[in-house]
Amino acid sequence: MTTFTKSPLIRTAIALAIGAIGAIVGWLVGLPLFPLMGPALCVAAVALMGVPLTLDTRVRDAAFLVIGIGIGTGVDAQAQAAFLRWPIAFAALAVLLVLILLISRFLLSRVFGFDRRGAVLASTPGHLSYVLSLGAEIHADLTRIVVVQSVRILAMTVAVPFLLIAMGFDVSSGISRAGEVMSWGHFSVLLVLGLAVGLLFQRIRVPAAMLIAGMAASSVGHLSEMTPGQLDPVLALLGYVTIGTLIGSRFTGITLAHLRAAALAGVVTTGVALGLAAGFAVPVAAFLGIPVAHVLVAFAPGGLDTMLAMGAMLGADPGFVAASHVGRLLILTALVPLFIARAGKPATE
């Protein structure tokens, strides 16, 4: 690696430039949700060629904070009308996660040759850092797990919009909602408040801390009508392109040989997870009285940051989408150790 590419900021700039090219190409060819999908695919392709593409954590957190503020602008009193019925949806989500783990673990161990404990970790629909820490403790094959999980996140980013199109939903929504753009003064206030809350969330290890903090600050500001207006479309576009770039950069360090060895397993388990999520989304949407597309985005086990951004682009209730994805991580925190314990130790130990 040259000195030029060792600099985190230079790597970040290169990654974002490639992501921007991906977004432009995605827009030109008509990709749905092109600010996310275009950069994700383009950056992943370049990363698989051996180019070290990473995002500096400061740039990532800044994008998370901005997008979180944008997501929070969709929170209002009307959006919370189904709040009292959310627990039923979360119960359905818990059953969904158990089924995903059971079916995916079976396929990975019986069809793709994973050991039972490694199959549990590779099939876990989310919580990647937690999964990898558990994998290190039990000496699992982390490379295969990382490939399967990276394929899941990228495949969900690509597959969810196309599945929604196949189901007859319009995914051509704009980057930001219609309405008056938030003043820079109000945006600055939310930025400072979101940063303060985000630093606190990071200390207590809240996932995607800056994203959740920005959303929380913006939600309070909009519910109280103290910071009215929508996020500037240019800021929203830059934030989405950064998140798309982050998705693609997960393939840095993964070789084509690694990808060939485990990509099919990742695609199959992603298909299982997405199919089950779609099946659960239909009755839950009917119960809550909200569009199926919004529940699918809330239930689809992609990256938390990705699915929140996708939900915002589709105009989904941000509170419900965020609560569902944070709830998914909490449920998995309890489920995964139980599944590993039931898997037992490999015969070689």
Folded structure, characterized:
The chain has one domain. The two termini are 38 Å apart. It has 349 residues and is an all-alpha fold. The mean pLDDT is 86. Helices cover 73% and strands 0% of the residues. It contains 15 helices and no strands.
Query: Strand fraction band?
Result: under 5%
Distance between the termini: 38 Å
Low-confidence stretches: none
Number of DSSP strands? 0
SS field, number of helical segments: 15
Q: Could you say which overall geometry the principal axes of the C-alpha atoms support?
A: globular
Percent range for helical residues? over 70%
Write the SSE topology.
Blueprint (H helix, E strand, L loop, with lengths): L2 H4 L1 H22 L4 H15 L8 H16 L13 H25 L5 H8 L4 H10 L4 H25 L17 H20 L5 H15 L9 H17 L6 H33 L3 H8 L4 H11 L3 H26 L6
Helix pairs in contact: 2-3, 2-11, 3-11, 4-10, 4-11, 4-14, 5-6, 5-12, 5-15, 6-8, 6-15, 7-8, 8-12, 9-10, 12-13, 13-14, 13-15, 14-15
Features:
single chain; 349 residues; mainly alpha; 15 helices
In brief:
This protein has 349 residues and is mostly helical. It has 15 helices and no strands.
